[in-house]
Design a protein that fits this description.
homodimer; about 260 residues; alpha+beta; 60s Ribosomal Protein L30, Chain: A; CofE-like fold; 2 domains; 6-stranded mixed beta sheet; 7 helices; 13 strands; about 30% helix
């Protein structure tokens, strides 16, 4: 009995480990080096089965995806729309520059589809956790950002770790926001049960879990939006490696989207 | 330096611990007892700061929320609609009985709003992980189910633990499904940053994280739809206690729903 208990307990536990003490990231910084510095300060020794979840903001900062609001010249439409929905026209201008389609404009908020294909508030443009007067955009190519971080870590440590870049998104039907994946590298983002049979012999027909989003949400629990914990190590989750698939696979085409 | 490292490492880690070995749950079973039996088999000693995440299916089974498909008599509409979208009319009938509004009917799938207010595929009705020929409904009152489990655990162990009942939902805009909370007891489901200032003095205006859903998603990573791991212990997440709030707070009213 004792042996069985220990065997059970030994398998399947997942740890969500916040990487604290990451220094302020500035344009041109190597994010992988910042993460490793945070790991050193936090006393985290990376293992070859770890997954890194990185909030997009430090990536955007490192890549210079930050604008000074003062330098933004709003278009005639941005001025008019900003006045109408009660939003700074310069912000509206930045959102327009980041969007390929607007979904809704109302009461101080714009829901937009970013050029990556993500549907989110303000096309992912955000003024929190950045110097006053600045505005942060999403990384231009979040999958490439994830890959660069992974390759930087590999170069320094010899460990080949998947990386998920996350952001905080609102969603339809439900209150509150959750973290989701906007960039991925090195892991299969879905756990596909279709065609597999459960313990009763029933064949699952539609179950495809988006584990990339679940990893981002799990990581958020160990982050803190006021305290600068922009990176989390997920340890113990058995992922499948995939170096080709991108976060484009996470966006649902309108034709397939029954929830829209 | 070493001291700082240890202090950092000591704080903030979250563990997602699968409760294995839970025996098959039948109608009338006390789910809290099944969970404690699983904890015993898994060698998990519950702590007073743990959160329990329980998939709705074992709750539905214990509460007798299981129908025999053979005993279902489809209405004229269920027959007609089933033929039209290519779905068993008896299934359609069960979905109709669980729904208060249909959102979409297409290609073998019905998106419906359940009487609890959740928008999900097939009104939460599902044939996996149950005996062949059976169909499982959502618990009638998932918050009450969560409360009963919590109170059962408290009675036996003296530990007052929050409980989240989870289900796997599809969503708008994004591919794949994730686990979300459909019943809660004992914890504040949101982490509300509105009015708080970040490290740069910027006041967050809209950030309200749905930690109940993130906990459900985190737990799913340690579950397995084929292997019977229906319960997970989340350890190390600092939650706020709240015994009044229900999962109704997680459903967004159409008037407030800009993503819909």
């Amino acid at each position: 009995m004792k042996v069985e208990a220990r065997r059970h307990n030994a398998t399947g536990m997942i740890q969500i480990i916040p990487v604290k003490g990451i220094p302020e990231v500035a344009k041109g910084n190597d994010v992988s080096k910042s993460i490793l510095e945070g790991c050193r300060i936090s006393g985290i020794r990376l293992s070859s089965q770890d997954i890194l979840i990185v909030t997009h903001k430090i990536v955007s900062k490192a890549e210079g995806q930050v604008l000074q609001l003062n330098s933004v010249v709003p278009s005639a439409f941005a001025k008019k729309a900003g006045r109408h929905i009660g939003k700074d026209p310069r912000q509206v201008e930045v959102i327009l520059s980041e969007a390929r389609r607007l979904v809704k404009m109302v009461r101080g908020l714009i829901i937009a589809e970013t050029r990556h294909g993500f549907v989110c508030a303000n096309a992912g443009v955000d003024q929190s956790n950045v110097k006053k007067g600045s505005i942060v955009l999403l990384p231009k190519k979040p999958d490439l950002s994830a890959r660069k971080i992974s390759e930087g870590i590999l170069k320094t440590t010899g460990k080949d770790l998947p990386v998920v870049i996350s952001d905080t998104f609102g969603r339809a039907w439900r209150e509150g926001q959750i973290d989701v994946a906007i960039g991925i590298y090195g892991l299969e983002p879905f756990s596909d049960y279709r065609g597999k049979t459960d313990q009763y012999g029933y064949e699952l027909k539609a179950t495809v879990i988006c584990i990339a989003d679940e990893l981002a949400s799990a990581a958020e629990l160990a982050m803190n939006k006021l305290d600068r914990v922009p990176v989390v190590v997920v340890r113990g989750y058995k992922f499948e490696r995939d170096k080709e698939i991108t976060a484009r696979a996470l966006t649902r085409s309108p034709a397939r989207d029954l929830f829209r």
